[in-house]
Amino acid sequence: MPEDICEQIIKLANEAPKIPEDLYHLIKKAIAIRKHLECNRSDKDSKFWLILIESRIHHLARFYKTSGQLYPDWKLYP
């Protein structure tokens, strides 16, 4: 599943204005943690960090939407 999400994000990056670098790296990190959690479901520390990283992604996305660097209807997981 994370690979599909990554492919969708790359497709959106080609169609949409370029995704800012800091947002891109946070998305990559979240995908890596999700992939890790598929094999290690009981890893509570990773779940905690995934929540924090996704929170940062949402805050940055909100900032970039208001500044016009992302489409207003951009979503992390379309």
Summarize the model shown:
InterPro entries: Ribosomal_uS15, Ribosomal_uS15_arc_euk, uS15_NS1_RNA-bd_sf. With 78 residues, the chain is mainly alpha-helical.
Main sheet record: none
For this structure, what is the CATH homologous superfamily?
S15/NS1, RNA-binding
Which blocks of ≥5 consecutive residues have pLDDT under 50? Answer: none
Instruction: Specify the CATH architecture.
Output: Orthogonal Bundle
Q: In terms of structural class, how would the helical and strand content be classed?
A: mainly alpha
Distance between the termini: 13 Å
What proportion of the residues form beta strands (DSSP E)? under 5%
Query: What top-tier CATH class fits best?
Result: Mainly Alpha
* Domains (count): 1
What is the number of helical segments per DSSP (H or I, 4+ residues)? 3
Rg, nearest Å: 13 Å
- Total beta strand runs: 0
Describe this protein's structure.
This protein has 78 residues and is mainly alpha-helical. The protein has a single domain (2-67), classed as Helix Hairpins (Orthogonal Bundle). The chain is built from three helices and no strands. The protein is globular and about 40 Å long. The relative contact order is 0.17. The model has no long low-confidence stretch (mean pLDDT 86).
Short descriptors:
single chain, Helix Hairpins, mainly alpha, 78 residues, ribonucleoprotein
What is the element layout, followed by pairings?
Layout: H1 2-15, H2 21-39, H3 44-67
